[in-house]
Amino acid sequence: MNGVAFLIFKMDKKCKENDNRWLHRFAVASAVATFLLLGAGGLVTSHEAGMSVPDWPNSYGYNMFAFPISKWTGGIFYEHTHRLWASVVGLMTTVLAVWIFLKDSRKWMKWLGVAAFLLVVAQGVLGGLRVVLIDADLGTVHGIVGQTFFVLMCAIALFTSRFRQKFSGRKLNVPRNLRILVLAATLLIFFQLILGATMRGQHAGLAIPDFPTAYGQLWPDTSPAAIVRYNAESGNPDIITSFQILLQMVHRLGALAIFICVTTCAVMAWRQLGGRDPLAKFAFFWLALIAAQIGLGAWTILSNKAADIATAHVLVGALSLVTGALWYIIASGRPTKITEVETAPSDVFGTLAANKR
Amino acid sequence: MPVARAADIVGTITFKGTPPPEHTNNLIMGDPTCGKMYSTPPTTHFYVVGKDGEFADVVVSLKDADGKDITGKSTGAGAPPALLDQKGCLYTPQILAVQTGQKLLARNSDQCVHNVHCDPTVPGNVERNEPQMPGGPDLTFTFPKPEMFLKFECDVHSWMFAWVSVFDNPYFDISGTEGKFTIKNVPPGKYTIVAAHHKAGTQTQEVEVADKDVTVNFTFEAK
After folding, report:
1. B71-170: what CATH class?
2. Which CATH class is domain B1-64+176-223?
3. The sheet that has B147-153: what strands, in order across it?
4. How do residues A219-255 score in pLDDT, each as one tens digit?
5. Residues of B in contact with A51 (CB under 8 A)
6. CA-nearest residue of chain A to B201?
């Protein structure tokens, strides 16, 4: 854990000389554009429109950018706008990577820019191959890579900011156990997002039509006779399978585990860092996101998977992941010992002061 | 020496009780092209049940006496093509059955673009996704492997589904609105007759065919 803190400190000691407000603003704009792209992707899957444009990179034989608006009907609207917006994000990421390469003296930041560029290219190709190869599993991977890319873009925005310096340069240290718990909760959220993406690929969002119970029970019957009964009564055109039901139950249990983890993180941050510490406030913001996310998950089921609600569920999930990741990154810029340290005027993270002692 | 002739298996499918309610398709009304074709929103047609319980859209087929698929008997290559039409932004018919190797034509009778996406689950049957413009030529699909309720969908219009069952023999039928079915020219022998409904499940009976037509009835009950 100390190694991570040292690495982050080392990575950021050139922060001041790399103070480039416009680069930071562009990085933030790129992260926001990525967030909107996640929303556009969420709308595609929520409207089950992922295959509505059967060709790629063309759209119904047209050059993608010349596809007539009059043909953007039904699911095509969602899929085609997703592709166009993805092109914008791809362009922004390319500009960002070049900008970082030219203007940021931190070697690791250059590599981060290159990684973002490679990831956005890979993500675009994945999305295209999902359509061309008609492979739903690639669609699931596309969803997971999209979330990962969003975290990377937010991290770049953070690393190009002075906000992180201010946020990290506090007197109080962040205890090791709190950091580990935050990391565990973030990884749990990532696992939950993988489950969510798999559920979307499996059309399993409505495999269980009620909440908080499951077919009126705490744990649903998944015997063959019960599955026949569920299908007979279901308004869902797709056949419900026991695997889909189990997948959703694991997703529900995952949500409970995350809620407990993040609640513990918030309480620990409050107690150990104090209520006025930005990281403590950030932890409670995180908890609010998780609570909202659970509410949106329930609403998705109760609304019969209304597309806007299901998409909001995807977006708040992405925000929950990125909040945990940024919390951990920021905390890694602080020392782990629970001792009061003075922040030197020239010290950007407080880490320097801690290390001097 | 008398030669045993093939016989027909006939029967009626009945649904007992109240079928689950159908769902109103509000999505179709929100579509600027498809919505114009309806004054009131259509509903799903999962359970097509007549006033006396006549149960339509049940796929009735034969397996051998051990309950195994009858294979290698397909006459699909020479059979006339089956038609899956897209009309009013819905598939017609919604339940269809063909033989392996038999052509299935997908037609677009609408004034809007559709994509025809078949999503088989049995290895050997290939998933395809083809665009089809208004007035465009029919798309031809064939499937080499037997599969029950192979899903067809339009991703442009997320409410459009059809299910095609594929058999490696010609011994099948789908019950009509009167609940009746006929499996023609069945060679003498012992069989398992299967009645499968996409939502209501599957029932089987043993049947022996000699040189006279055989009647087999099925009754599905509300769950």
Report:
1. mainly beta
2. mainly beta
3. B95-99, B161-167, B147-153, B114-119, B128-132
4. 999 999 999 999 988 888 888 999 999 999 999 999 9
5. 115, 117, 129, 155
6. A228
